[in-house]
Specification:
Number of helices: 17
Radius of gyration: 24 Å
Distance between the termini: 62 Å
CATH topology of the largest domain: Rossmann fold
CATH superfamily of the largest domain: Vaccinia Virus protein VP39
Number of strands: 12
CATH architecture of the largest domain: 3-Layer(aba) Sandwich
CATH class of the largest domain: Alpha Beta
Order of helices and strands: HHHHHHHHHHEHEEEHEHEHEEHHEHEEE
Mean pLDDT: 95
Structural class: alpha/beta
Length: 427
Amino acid sequence: MHISQQIAAEAIGQVFAGRNLGLVLEGLFARYPNITQQQRAVAQDLSYGTLRFYGAVQSLLDQLLQKPLDDAKLHCLLLVAIYQLQYDKAASHTVVDQAVKAASQSKKTWAKGLVNGVLRNFLRQQSELLANIYGNEFATYSYPLWWINKLKNQYPESWEEILLVGNQHPPMTLRVNQRQITSAGFVAKLNADGIEAKVLGANAITLDKPIPVDRIPGFYDGQASVQDYAAQLAGYALDLKAGQRVLDACCAPGGKTGQILELADVDLVALDNDASRIERTKSNIERLKLHATLVVGDAANPSGWWDGSPFDRILADVPCTASGIVRRHVDIKWLRREADIASFNKQQAQILPSLWQLLAKGGKLLYVTCSVFVEENQRQIDVFLKTHLDAEQLPLTSPLAGLNLDNGQLQPSAQHDGLFYALLQKQ
């Protein structure tokens, strides 16, 4: 286990240095090619878990240290171990023993003794330490205080629920490709393989327990894709009809691109400004046995790629803080700064009017974010409507059971992530 603790500790240190957790783990696993699949899985679980509950874990560790550690690696190792002792099911003596072994990699002679002493003190004083952080919002919710305060202000009745849901493990939801198989048929196929699942609504099914995609029967044949339930509203909200010319802007990695093609026979242009991410979109579409025109280009600067032919439908899945999907990307809580919201606002305010020029009269543009912050959502739309008198915001209703749209905002829940939708029509 100590190698998994070691990798997790290093991953957490790199996240707090500003790096993306997924990319960090990818790089670390490449550096440890001889570790087992189980060790990789444990390292990943420890990284995600420690960051998920970092506020509580850091607050507990602060009480155990007489002064801040000047060794970042040991500090992160202690965070991982305290996370395990507080939240994990591993035996406490094993956690302590393995953490001491991991500390032996340090060149500092006192490292093993410090780790051993801190963790044993935690076990002895656990109840008292927990009592001391009661009422501390950073420790209770494990979010930056600016994030907590912003949600309190914007969601006075549901801010706490939003925070708590963001600390849960996310559900694994699939979108069934109705061109190949029905939802009921696919659930039966899963059940026959011993995988428990149920239909959520329309083409969405949820698994009782997450599994690797290579265990999903028919996945590589394009019978299903992994896609959050709230994200599956996009294809329906676009009001697609056969023969339409459709633009999927900011399309990568292609989840919504695939859904559009499954729902209607349209002429689809899928755009992204990152060539490597366009390749991911391409592989997803090919897996589904569908076709789109793939373009590398900037949604905020159409002159570099647009052929002059207007679109009947545009999906603008714009860059955002991703504050509505933090349970899937736990590092976001600690990588984001409050000032980042203004930066994303600027991008959104450039993309939306640029794409609006490409929309045919009578056409519809669907603006989407995976954020819960109103600055990126309805407030952005309100500003746009004031300066574009030919735009009308249409009411949105959800054909998907259990999706409750509150003025376009889907708050994160046990069933789905937190997304915002605004449907605009050109007069």
